[in-house]
Amino acid sequence: MTTTRPSDLDTALSLLRQTGARPRSGGTDLTACLAHGVLAPAPVVDLTGIAALAGIDWRQDGSARVGALTSVHELSADPGLRRAYPALARTAEALATPQVRRTATLGGNLLQRNRCWYLRNPAFDCFQTGGGSCPAREGDHLHGVAVDQGPCVAPHPSTLAVALVAYDAVARIEGGDEGAGERPVADLYDPGDPTRDHVLGPAQVLAAVSLPAPAPASGPPTCGRPGGPGPSGRWWR
Ligand SMILES: Cc1cc2nc3c(=O)[nH]c(=O)nc-3n(C[C@H](O)[C@H](O)[C@H](O)COP(=O)(O)OP(=O)(O)OC[C@H]3O[C@@H](n4cnc5c(N)ncnc54)[C@H](O)[C@@H]3O)c2cc1C
Ligand code: SF4
């Protein structure tokens, strides 16, 4: 399995298109999926050298563009994001472990594979792996969806997506036959299509997420109330 690490997005997109490679950001999910046979072997395009996918930019109107390579740790620690989008920062801080948060990225989090036991066990076939049924329906569906919206009953595992949907965030997508475009984070997922976890095609890359300017009075709790900032300046404990 070859790994290439291009430094610009155009090269990455043409490699994805020409070689059938899979994009990798932090690798915390992709590496496990490839190692355990959840995904078929394929070349890897490492996105971490692409400056256009990095960084947090603020616009005049108070809105923010967060690059797909922004780590979960950065989402939790960036003072501007903590102030403007506390639910996102708090969700990021609660995610996984410090090691995972330092490595995992926003883009990889939104596009990770779901955690269904049957998908993660290559001994089973299901809609998501080319099969014609969903063994979780009759089997062990602990942590499956509460509301039956489609043939696949696995919820998408991204907790960041929940916060981003609440903030009406919009994802910027590059590449693929459709070309560059934007869609609400909520529309990255299609519960009616049981064959995949998100709507991006194999030669597409999630480049960034834009968050609208925060609504008035939507910031963190103010001082002096339970849940307000303590002596350390932290405001949510
Ligand atoms: C112990 C543990 C606890 C966890 N708890 C949580 C939790 O509470 N909440 C939660 O949300 N997650 C949780 N996770 C999952 C973790 O957040 C994900 O593994 C991580 O966010 C994936 O990010 P990554 O950058 O490493 O993605 P990668 O592993 O690099 O990629 C993941 C997938 O996205 C694709 N991809 C990556 N970047 C892009 C891009 N820019 N464009 C297109 N495709 C891309 C890859 O091809 C791959 O299919 C947990 C994981 C562990 C190990
Ligand atoms: S179709 Fe979805 S819920 Fe059913 S086994 Fe596959 S991943 Fe799990």
Task: Write up this protein.
With about 240 residues, the chain is an alpha/beta fold. It has a single domain (about 5-115, about 155-210), classed as Uridine Diphospho-n-acetylenolpyruvylglucosamine Reductase, domain 3, CATH 3.30.465.10. The chain has ten helices and eight strands. Helix 5 packs antiparallel against helix 10 (about 160-165). It binds flavin-adenine dinucleotide and iron/sulfur cluster. Iron/sulfur cluster binds near residues 118, 135 and 154.
Strand arrangement across the biggest beta sheet: 4-5-8-6-7
How many β-strands, per DSSP? Answer: 8
- Give the total of domains: 1
What small molecules accompany the polymer chains? Answer: flavin-adenine dinucleotide, iron/sulfur cluster
Largest sheet: 5 strands, antiparallel
